[in-house]
Amino acid sequence: MRFVVVTGMSGGGKSTALRMLEDAGFYCVDNLPVSLIDKFVELIDTPNSEISKVALGLDARAGQSFEDVTNVLMALRERGYKLEILFMEADDHVLIKRYKETRRVHPLALEGRVEDGVQKERIVLQDIRKQADYVIDTTDLLTRELKEELDRIFILNKEYNSLMVTVMSFGFKHGIPTDADLVFDVRFLPNPFYIDELKLKTGNDKEVQDYCMSFAEAEEFMQRLKSMLDFLIPYYIKEGKYRLVIAIGCTGGKHRSVTLANELYDRMKDKGNYGMKLYHRDVYNRSV
Fold it and tell me: Model confidence over 23-57: pLDDT tens digits?
């Protein structure tokens, strides 16, 4: 029997993940009281049971000690149950925004501020996060991308590492992305903006791509960048990093950076045991 415990920050996407696992054939139960977890596992794990895949949703609730949850899960593992823990999370500002948009009350801030509840919950869940087999950060994930990641882990059974790599194009005149981990400047390449037939196109158009990549220095840059990332990423994974943003910038963020970001994404996707995203921040930015 495959037994997955789905937990994490309130607003991090736990309920969405459970629904997706249910669609994938998992028998899902959410918010089971701690005192019933042991009994539930015993009832499910019987020789004649037709249930082969189970997902159990657990979260921090007022009046319920999550330390007890952690102890129960550890005890089950010691008894030979092969539990997989999926931890869902997001940045604080995103969690707060999601709560404010839905006008829900945070379970650990029933009479206080959402911000206080988020901070308290991080402390409560810090131990189980360390034990998690999978950590998915939904800060910038689309619903489609979350489904792809869950399918990769629980349906396709591919090797998992928690790192999500985002390749982002941007324009320096609009500012360097604040969440960038690695920033690369491709303004050394000739600018298609000054070619009349390319000016109104973007790096998503083949004509611009062909122009930018026609220069030997563009190909050499891509090879050197890919080689460096192949070296760095395993060490990021080893250190437990779960998000890496690679920002590639040109002047306006429409031609060279978009082309090179697309090219890097194509060369990296499906090549490693990490997730990949592509994002063009300024490709349609009309500000001067």
Answer: 989 999 998 888 888 888 888 887 777 888 999 99
232-235 contacts: CB < 8 A, separation 24 or more? 233/163, 233/165, 233/272, 233/274
How far apart are alpha carbons 149 and 155 in whole angstroms?
A: 10
Cα–Cα distance, 78 to 93 (Å, whole number): 37
**Residue 12, number of CB atoms within 10 A of its CB:** 25
CA distances in angstroms from 149 to 39, 137, 174, 248, 259, listed in the order given = 31, 11, 31, 24, 25
* Last residue in a domain, options 155, 187, 205: 155
Residues 171 and 128 in one domain: no
Q: Tell me if 286 is assigned to some domain.
A: no
E strands within 138-262?
164-171, 182-185, 243-250
133 and 184 together in one domain: no
- In this structure, the number of other CB atoms found within 10 A of the CB of residue 269 comes to 14
CA distance 55 to 113: 31
> Global pTM?
0.69
Strand partners, 3: 54, 83
